[in-house]
Design a protein that fits this description.
Two copies of one chain form a homodimer. By secondary structure, chain A is an alpha/beta fold. Helices cover 35% and strands 22% of the residues of chain A. Chain A contains eight helices and 15 strands. In chain A, strands 6-5-4-9-12-14-15 form a seven-stranded parallel beta sheet, with helices on both faces. A three-stranded antiparallel beta sheet of chain A has the order 1-3-2. The interface between A and B is large, with 37 and 40 residues. Chain B binds a DNA duplex through helix 3.
Chain lengths: 249, 249
DNA sequence: ATTGTTTTTGCAAGTTTTTGCTGTTATTGT
DNA sequence: ACAATAACAGCAAAAACTTGCAAAAACAAT
């Protein structure tokens, strides 16, 4: 085996898994650990990867830590994401909208979970692609500059031809009386199409956004099957939603 | 056996397997290892292949999708991107593929330039969205985990309904004889559809990738209208491409 | 045809690169 | 602090490379 081959393999592995252990490499390449070490050292010198104790990591094309600064809010979102992930099961076909909460969901999906996910959100798609076992299908269309979210007829049309198990909607404004509302008309169109395309709809929202209303309406509470917040399902803040036939998580 | 024959055989082997061992060559050609060594040395000098310890590799072999961090290559790519951007004009509707070179193009687009860009690449789309005046339309479909690139029938179908001014293709492997080649069949399908959907096709490639061949063919040189490299258009390395009716930039 | 020149090829001696092994020193996690 | 693991330096064998050289083949010109 040529040295070049080995080094290419190493780089491929690094790019694929973001990190590799020298031991694993030495194992799968059938060469001594010293040889691998030397290879990695060279590649490091050539700035092709970063050598770390015991292995190597890629430089990471885009280090995706869009820290929204607010640690407090973030921990809430992680709590929501954890609950949401627990609702998923192998083999499901789901829809995911955008937003930071959905980003956390995407990040927290277990490596072994096998899913097919449709999404119109660039960020969510990017995060999902880190998971080997998740098939990601992007719903293409005109992209909104701010939200990095696809909208327009193409998306709605593609959605009209889908029938998936689950739709996970993030970043909404929720109110028991007015239902789910948004401020962007084009996003509304897409979210409505997403709800229509799914058997069940899950809404994720931090308690701060409960009882807030925006200009346009996405849907009534009756279209929602599950509501996930960072609160305990028995929390009094959720009382307003109990009259509806929905699962509180 | 003639020297020419031998060298052609060697090149074929390199193109086919992306690497060869001097020993194997000496074996199958029934000549001494020294002769093979000298042949490979010559071919290396002629930039037809890359000689390495113990054998030789094709130029495409050691090129990586994520070669950022490689300052040397990056400066070449920026040079290419600058030339490419100068070919664009207000109001155009264009197609852009993926790859790091196209990323640089996306980054270098002047803030004031008004464009409509269709792309199946997540990274390129993301970069383009930084430009207020660029309308970005993502060609949705199944995303490849590594390339973050949409492929499949949806993309090809969407492209079949387009007729745009320009198609800018990055990350290809280019050879005067074999044309534009790739190693991923699904990507080929998309790129072919992109070429069909555009009035003109521009190929971007760093000189390292010239004279390198991969498994599958995207198109002949005759489908290419403009070839952009970091080299001066009069550089002898480009001589092989002059017989074709294309613009060298 | 043959003589002289150039190119090509194989061989041999000496050098460099690569690789795995050894023992020693650093680093890490508990 | 201590055990476990990883990194490093030096060494030796094997493989690959370089250089110089001479025989063989190809070519040119008389």
């Amino acid at each position: 085996m040529l040295k070049e081959e080995r080094q290419k393999y190493i780089l491929d592995q690094v790019h694929l898994h973001h990190r590799v252990l020298l031991n694993d490499l030495s194992d799968s390449l059938n060469v001594s650990i010293d040889t691998v070490r030397r290879d990695v050292k060279e590649l490091d010198k050539e700035k092709k990867l970063k050598k770390v104790h015991g292995g190597a990591t890629s430089f990471g094309f885009m280090t995706f830590t869009k820290d929204d600064g607010n640690i407090y809010l973030k921990s809430k979102k992680i709590s929501i994401a954890e609950k949401t992930v627990s609702l998923l099961s192998d083999g499901q076909v789901i829809l995911m909208s955008g937003g930071t909460t959905n980003m956390e969901v995407a990040n927290l999906i277990p490596k072994k979970l096998v899913l097919t996910v449709f999404t119109p959100s660039l960020h969510v798609a990017m995060a999902l692609l880190e998971h080997e076992n998740v098939e990601v299908i992007f719903l293409g269309g005109k992209l909104l500059h701010e939200a990095k979210f696809a909208v327009g007829g193409t998306v709605v049309n593609a959605l009209s031809q889908l029938r998936v198990d689950l739709c996970i909607l993030g970043t909404g404004y929720l109110d028991a009386q007015f239902g789910l509302t948004e401020f962007d008309w084009e996003v509304i169109q897409v979210k409505q199409a997403m709800i229509r395309a799914a058997k069940k709809t899950i809404i994720l929202t931090v308690s701060d956004k409960l009882h807030s209303v925006q200009k346009y309406k996405t849907c009534d509470m009756t279209s929602v099957h599950t509501l996930v917040t960072e609160l305990d399902p028995s929390d009094p803040l959720l009382d307003a939603f109990r009259p509806f036939e929905l699962v509180l998580v």
